[in-house]
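Quarterly update from the structural biology core.
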Amino acid sequence: MRRHLKYRVKPIFLVALLPFIEVFSPSAFAGETQAPVSKAEEAALELVRGNAGQAIAAYTEALKDAGLANDRRATLLNDRAVAYVRMGQPKLAIEDYNKALQIFAEYPAAYNNRGNLLLALDNATEALKDFDRAILLAPGYAAAYSNRATAKVKLGKFKDAIQDYTKAIELMPSSAPPLSGRGLAFLATGKPHAAIRDFSRAVQADARFASAYRNRAEARVNVEQSTEAIEDLSRALAFDPSNGEIYVVRGYAYLSASNAASAIKDFTRAIELDPKLVSAYQGRGLANGLAEAFEDAFADLNRAIELDPRSATAFAYRAFVYKQDGQPDVGLKDIETALKLDPDNADAFWVRGEISELQGQTEAAIQDLRKALGMKPSLILAADALTRLGVGADVSEDRDVPGLGIDSWRVVVRSNSYYAVSDDYPGVRVPLEMLGEGQPKLSLWDIQKPPHASYGVLHYSGGTVLGKNGSEEAELAAIIDIESGKVIGIQPHRQGARVARWQWEEDRLQVASVDGVTDEFVLRAMRPAPTAPLASGQRRTYGVDGESSASWAPWDQPVGGVGRSNRQAKRAQKKPKSLFDLLFNN
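Predicted structure, tokenized:
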């Protein structure tokens, strides 16, 4: 009795994942206790059980059968290659994939699997050729589309990658990895709202998909949803409690919410897990500096510089602590070093702006703070410093695009990115993410009826996209919380003849999207009441008891935390000093 075992490999994304293979489970042989188990079946069973070494031995024995047909021999070589990958022997795996394709050149799984291995070995160019061949042989091979998309991401071909991920999602809509992969591609191309949609769908498909929670947290940071970002990072840690980098990211999130105690706790935990994690020392040093625990701050930042002498961020943070400690001239020397190491380090310009403000050099401060904010729009403290100085962000680079506006709304472009702005809502700046080629022409501004009168939906053309029936026009809709001045989501509203269905309930909005998936947004009724914005001259302070002496939390959502202090430091009573870096984008 011979059984052909078909294998498919789980898609690889920004980190390499082990192959996902389909084999017979032991239950497949129920009722056949009298029949002898072949070496091939034994090998498959061992691979399912995680015994890669025993599987290799059994596959080797099975391959000694001189009567094997070429396609069957190729299958066994492919499967043994998978086992070699599990054993950390990529050279032997490549040899088996090559042998399989020499004797059976029309075997798409072997091309896909070899491409996976090449991708894991950072050879995306050669991997792409294998995925192309797999798709040519099997046009419905979903995993190959997903893997080819990942190769294109590594090669910087994001637009093509999004098309391949979309095809993979059409072929396997309930699979989380291609959704997460497309989300990463959207995030890399400056479309965080689209990324959030895909990451949310990924965790709906697989609630234990930890990387999707972490990735969604990064996207939420980009759109000023810090509370939700912290929640996502906590979920990610529930599935991966030994991941020090996630603790670092959550530490920065707590720090941005004026919760120095929880931030220090997370940075400390990250250091316990990895005593050489530079980002954790940097974060804890900044947190201690904000709390004016200067001795501890200097110790952490000196350790970060010792571990990575070329970390511009560590020098910038130490300059900030010097400024807090009344030594701005010493801090400027660290800023000089930081900018030599990285001339485009936004943190260095932010801190230099703070020092210039302290020294009464207002124009220089404004220039540096605006430059920092332009480099990294998430630098809230740069915006706060500008507010203190009586100015706002520099909008001089905005260029009006005639013919795209509607009513009081107009469209501006900066650095090839489009935004909708309105004099009626001066605090609102809507990023007009696109799905395809074209310009975002506004079509409708729809303020909702009570009890949702503080929400509005701005509709605009999303460009031309490739649909099942060829090119189709897309329309997007930005959901705006007028009260807080924030965009809470951007949804596809129309594509071709398909139109989304919107249902406003008391505390949530459900959108049945054009692709058949329902997305949900929690409305303000389920959230704490928003706090007042930081007034001109008001200063945020950071204590180590887990509380902030100013009624503030970033992006309108206060974040609580368990206070912890092993040092009696004064609460900071100076200018706002926190910084939420975008997931190690220092």
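The first helix runs from residue 39 to 48.
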